[in-house]
């Protein structure tokens, strides 16, 4: 049986990348929260 996670970089960036986050209001709030927390990496 195949494992559930079959990594693809393009798909990952499209779904969880910075630009995808900035598109929605909720996504922007996620980035803001991560900045507030002092995350080194904000998104995929």
Outline the structure in words:
- This protein is mainly α and 44 residues long.
- The protein has one domain.
- The protein contains 3 helices and no strands.
- The chain has helices at 9-16, 18-23, 25-37.
- The protein starts with 8 loop residues before the first helix and ends in a 7-residue tail after the last helix.
Features:
44 residues, mainly alpha, ribosomal protein, structural constituent of ribosome
The proportion of residues in beta strands is: under 5%
Please, how many helices?
3
Which residues form runs of ≥5 with pLDDT under 50? none
| Number of distinct beta strands | 0
What is the N-to-C order of secondary-structure elements (H for helix, E for strand)? HHH
Task: Lay out the secondary structure.
Layout (H helix, E strand, L loop, with lengths): L8 H8 L1 H6 L1 H13 L7
In short:
It contains three helices and no strands. It has 44 residues and is mostly helical. It has one domain (13-43).
């Amino acid at each position: 049986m195949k494992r559930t996670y079959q990594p693809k970089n393009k798909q990952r960036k499209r779904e969880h990348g910075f630009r995808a986050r900035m598109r929605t209001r909720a996504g922007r709030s996620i980035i803001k929260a991560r900045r507030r927390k002092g995350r080194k990496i904000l998104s995929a």
